[in-house]
């Protein structure tokens, strides 16, 4: 495999690749997290650039819908584990074992890597990776800092970034940047719908609760999807809107953005180029965020994302929140879910405020949901928040907001 840097022309003219760099690249222990659309591209690019000590982790199995872009997989692989199949494909192609599939291991296992490259599609997974590698850093020992290169795509948009855990902005430092579900104003969807998406939103947000009350739309239930489809189509006819079908309904309800193979290719390529530079030191690497915007014309933008000193994962400050003391616990949980992007947070002070599990404890705490915060703890108390999406807990100081009538008696 003498394909590595066969020509100098693509590089800085001063850059003379030598055997040292090739050796350096070949022996770098790389962990690839995700073997999906981005992961397949990342693995391919890594081996074609001479990386030979790669571990790959992915919990998913291969589905038919993956095959249009996840090119390491074939029809016969449907149902098999992505990591195992991808590794086998690459190894057979290269003719030696370059890629080793692994299962999730304990934290210490991850210390052996020199570099992590993520090709993930969820915010939760990124948060977990970033949190774990910050946890591994020992300030006294610089070798414990393992750089993360993180790629992500959404339709014609993508980004790659470099996180130097505890040194540069972590995933949480920028959590305000992550897009949440696209929503449409109620007045638009009720009065002046123009898009098929507006009609689907109308059916799910307005019509569904009228018919089914509190019960939520189950996006894995075909009957539910069909109900939305039928009602959205009926509604759309009044406005002369067409183009609503089952997959669009599913896309809107699940907020699915189509995966585009070529966007994955662009982002994965940029991630692996940064990996070469990081490992070899041959050229300066990305500092530290690159946006690729292909859905409104085309532009790209790189910038340095600053570390947030108040970040509750990598910063010094503890998180704090100011909130009226009469806020019910139930509402408070919704507020912190939104603020910290949590799934099912549990809260405790010196006693359990609300625990999501085990079921007996949840049942015992449940009456608290109806209580106002001041009945549960005092202003200025610290509440420990834990959640499955966090690698550590958040120590949240809760101050009761001053109400005007109290400050001006
Ligand atoms: Zn941070």
Automatic annotation (TrEMBL):
Pfam families: E2_bind (PF08825), ThiF (PF00899)
Enzyme Commission code(s) on record: 6.2.1.64
Pathway(s) served: Protein modification; protein neddylation
Cellular component annotations (GO), alphabetically ordered: cytoplasm; nucleus
The keyword Ubl conjugation is assigned to this record: no
Domain E2 binding: 321-401
Gene Ontology MF annotations: ATP binding; NEDD8 activating enzyme activity
Enzyme class (EC, first level): ligase
Reaction(s) this enzyme catalyzes, per UniProt: ATP + [NEDD8 protein] + [E1 NEDD8-activating enzyme]-L-cysteine = AMP + diphosphate + [E1 NEDD8-activating enzyme]-S-[NEDD8 protein]-yl-L-cysteine
Matches recorded under SUPFAM superfamilies: Activating enzymes of the ubiquitin-like proteins (SSF69572)
Single biological process term from Gene Ontology: protein neddylation
Assigned keywords, A-Z: ATP-binding, Ligase, Nucleotide-binding, Ubl conjugation pathway
Top-level taxon in the UniProt lineage: Eukaryota
Function: Catalytic subunit of the dimeric E1 enzyme, which activates NEDD8.
UniProt similarity note: Belongs to the ubiquitin-activating E1 family. UBA3 subfamily.
Protein name in UniProt: NEDD8-activating enzyme E1 catalytic subunit
Native source organism of the sequence: Smittium simulii
């Amino acid at each position: 495999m003498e394909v590595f840097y066969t020509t100098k022309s693509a590089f800085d003219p001063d850059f003379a690749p030598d055997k040292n760099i090739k050796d350096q690249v070949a022996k770098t222990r790389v962990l690839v997290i995700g073997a999906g659309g981005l992961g397949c591209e990342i693995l391919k690019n890594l081996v074609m650039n001479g990386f030979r000590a790669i571990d790959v982790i992915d919990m998913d199995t291969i589905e038919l819908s993956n095959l249009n872009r996840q090119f390491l997989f074939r029809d016969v692989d449907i149902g098999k584990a992505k990591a195992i199949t991808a590794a086998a494909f690459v190894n057979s192609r290269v003719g030696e074992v370059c890629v080793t599939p692994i299962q999730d291991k304990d934290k210490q296992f991850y210390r052996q890597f020199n570099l992590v490259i993520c090709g993930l599609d969820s915010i939760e997974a990124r948060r977990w990776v970033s949190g774990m590698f910050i946890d591994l850093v020992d300030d006294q020992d610089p070798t414990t800092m393992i750089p993360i290169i993180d790629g992500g795509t959404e339709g014609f948009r993508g980004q790659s970034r470099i996180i130097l855990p505890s040194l540069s902005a972590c995933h949480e430092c920028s959590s305000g940047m992550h897009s949440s579900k696209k929503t449409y104003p109620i007045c638009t969807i009720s009065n002046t719908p123009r898009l098929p998406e507006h009609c689907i939103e109308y059916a799910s947000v307005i019509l569904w609760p009228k018919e089914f009350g509190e019960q939520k739309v189950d996006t894995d239930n075909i009957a539910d999807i069909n109900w939305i489809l039928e009602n959205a189509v009926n509604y759309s006819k009044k406005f002369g809107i067409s183009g609503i079908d089952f997959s669009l309904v599913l896309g809107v309800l699940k907020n699915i953005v189509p995966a585009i193979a070529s966007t994955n290719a662009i982002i994965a390529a940029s991630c692996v180029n940064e990996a070469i530079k990081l490992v070899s030191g041959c050229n300066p690497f990305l500092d530290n965020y690159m946006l690729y915007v292909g859905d409104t014309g085309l532009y790209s933008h790189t910038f340095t994302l600053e570390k947030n000193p108040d970040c509750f994962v990598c910063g010094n400050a503890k998180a704090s929140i100011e909130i009226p003391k009469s806020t019910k616990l139930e509402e408070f949980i919704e507020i912190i879910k939104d603020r910290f992007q949590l799934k099912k947070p549990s809260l405790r002070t010196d006693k359990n405020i609300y625990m999501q599990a085990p079921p007996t404890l949840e049942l015992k705490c449940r009456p608290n949901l109806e209580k106002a915060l001041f009945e549960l703890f005092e202003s200025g108390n610290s509440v420990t928040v834990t959640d499955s999406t966090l690698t550590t807990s958040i120590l949240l100081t809760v101050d009761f907001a001053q109400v005007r009538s109290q400050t001006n008696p």
